[in-house]
Write a structure and sequence with these properties.
Structural class: mainly alpha
Organism: Thalassobellus suaedae
Distance between the termini: 11 Å
Radius of gyration: 17 Å
Number of strands: 2
Number of helices: 4
Strand order of the largest sheet: 1-2
Protein name: Homing endonuclease LAGLIDADG domain-containing protein
Length: 116
């Protein structure tokens, strides 16, 4: 993506592409830190796009591997927030944002646009 693509904001109330990418990274970090008792993502430094994308995908992969290889069941009733909300809520949020970056309503032009 070009710099102007990261800075583009389709509407006054919307997020820029960079803000959306940061949000999706935050969702992956939330899932990882909620599910994994060790090996939390405690990073507070700024990533460039390539590293943020890599870390986001790594967070999802780590959680997926742990859940698939678990030898005993998770005590779902012991979580403060329902377990499936921890997983499904952030994932559906991230998927919704992915769609908004490809198809959105531009308030300035008054039309729907598709990004290529």
């Amino acid at each position: 993506m070009r710099i102007e693509d990261f800075e583009y904001k389709p509407s006054e109330s919307g997020r820029t592409s960079a803000e959306t990418i940061e949000h999706i990274y935050g969702l992956s970090k939330f899932i990882r830190n909620s599910v994994l008792s060790n090996n939390k993502d405690t990073n507070v430094s700024e990533f460039n796009f390539k590293d943020k994308r890599k870390q986001t995908l790594l967070n999802f992969k780590m959680v997926s591997d742990v859940l698939r290889s678990a030898e005993k069941s998770f005590k779902l009733e012991d979580t403060e927030v329902p377990f499936w909300n921890i997983i499904n809520g952030p994932i559906s949020d991230a998927l919704w944002h992915c769609g908004t970056k490809w198809f959105y309503y531009d308030e300035r032009l008054g039309i729907h646009l598709i990004l290529k």
